[in-house]
């Protein structure tokens, strides 16, 4: 027992006063026998015993009353063990952090419905003076403005607002970011003056969606209680996690190879999974794929696209494949660009047109004044390369250049690593001792020497020369049915070519060889782009390739291939709630808006005064997006910028439904973690005050003392009057 005013316990000494008074008043009578009074003596003995008991009771009640008064003034209390429970603290602030990421939609939202029900139970246990708030646990990029992720940004008295917000909400297409959500909840409670505070975390404990390292660094100063809605059931899942495409042919109806990547998240393999390809809202193909347990599988489709521009495509898993629908659709745009911009650097200019190094290449790319080519080009000499902005082009052709400024080589490397294409061709101007140290890793292989087989006027040339061998038929450029005149490649005569170092460079691919096995065309990826090397000339000095039927379609197709047009290489699909940057031309920024899959419009505002700075926004939905812009002049309606069309998909991390064990999650959410001490909460103990009970007992003791101290005749007289008043007839 504890006392708030222990000094009043001195008053307990007052309990001895009635005893002292009783002892003082107790006088011993003188005994004298009087025979006439013997009869009275015997009758009084019985009465004396009764009075003695009465006096002792009066003494006890008076002592008890004084004791109780002293104890009451000392204000005793008991400390209850239940006082440290969150439900018994008065008053308190509670922030509910509810995981609303995509994984909560599993099994038609069963986990979400359970989460809403559990929060409803918690809210029902709150007292009227408790205050509450709500934070969602889905991912949201740093620096983004507050949105639906914090529906109640401050503690409120109306508990119904929490339930109202949850019932009007549903699992999002976003990933999980419980660290940020807990940080927001902790900061909200830190500004509260309530003595008791608590965070209630409602989650399915999805392991892949939790950044455990970041979660352990969240500065928690209040206790976190976890409500688990994930269950212990093993949840297998299939998801489309990637899409790629490659243009396989040119012409009025170019053919595309489109590849879907399906991944299994779970311990069970899936066979016969139906994958559907939908283009511009129409299903154009479907097929079956077997996916190993915990692995990936690809399904390849071939389709033709007629019109230029952007085609909005998506892969879908057939209905009923699994119980998480959010990751069964993967959207992606197919860009069928109208033009490729090429820069041709002529390293061997001639006064006679047909003897010029790039004469035949220019004719192949622009056969006639009225022809419509997919490649538009500018031609400069080596000295004009320094003044060119390579970012204005998709591909660069460096033809038989003896010397190139070192600064230009650095720019070429950065151009390729950024996604551009580079085609290097050799000739009499190229010397291995000059090119090898200058270009370095830009070369798929180091040059060795020039191999001269025969002169074109040599009568034995047909015996000495080599021809082009069979190309790599899996390469997009050299599929026979893609390339009109492809059969003429085998008849190409080569009189001289450049020998290469036999040591291969990583990822270098030989696309085309000579009949003697020497490489004719090589390529290798570098950063986001490609570098290709043709070991013979583009003119007729070393070969008759430029006058063969295959030359025109091969060069047009190969430059498009190097420019990465008609391919998804280098394209990255953003995830829901990730920041998207759009490079909108400065002259089209009067009004820029993004239209989401549901038709909603988001007007983008510039974030800086730089007119060329990218515009950014954060998508909340998965699917295909388009970008529309109006010119700064204000003339004309907004037009769609098809080259900026993009698609947004679910983060694959949300597809892995494996839960994190509760015993691993709980220590990460404890205020007392490694490297720190548990904070002292400003929370009062639950004290059971006893003074009100003591004062009540004092009242009873005084009442009893009054009754015992009153003469019997008086009591009978009062009792008679009470009975008489009760039995009197009413008037």
Give a written overview of the molecule.
The structure is a single chain. 35% of the residues are buried. This protein is α+β, with helices and mostly antiparallel strands and 731 residues long. Helices cover 24% and strands 27% of the residues.
Gist?
With 731 residues, the chain is an alpha+beta fold.
Fraction of residues in helix: 10-25%
Total number of helices:
14
**Average pLDDT number:** 83
Query: How many domains, in number, for the residues?
Result: 5
For the termini, the CA-CA separation is 58 Å
Q: How would the blueprint of this fold be written?
A:
Elements (H helix, E strand, L loop, with lengths): L1 E2 L12 H10 L12 H36 L2 E4 L12 E7 L7 H19 L6 E6 L15 E5 L3 H8 L10 H13 L5 E8 L8 H5 L7 E5 L8 E11 L7 E11 L4 E10 L2 E10 L4 E9 L4 E9 L11 E8 L3 E7 L12 H7 L9 E7 L13 E5 L6 H12 L3 E5 L6 H8 L7 E6 L8 H4 L1 E2 L25 E2 L1 E5 L8 E5 L5 E8 L2 E6 L16 H12 L17 E3 L8 E5 L5 E4 L10 E3 L5 E8 L8 E2 L5 E3 L13 H7 L18 E3 L1 H19 L2 H16 L4
Parallel strand pairs: 3-4, 3-6, 6-7, 15-16, 15-17, 17-18, 18-25
Antiparallel strand pairs: 1-2, 2-33, 4-5, 8-9, 9-12, 10-11, 10-13, 13-14, 19-22, 20-21, 23-24, 24-25, 26-29, 27-28, 27-30, 30-31, 30-32
Helix pairs in contact: 2-13, 3-4, 7-11
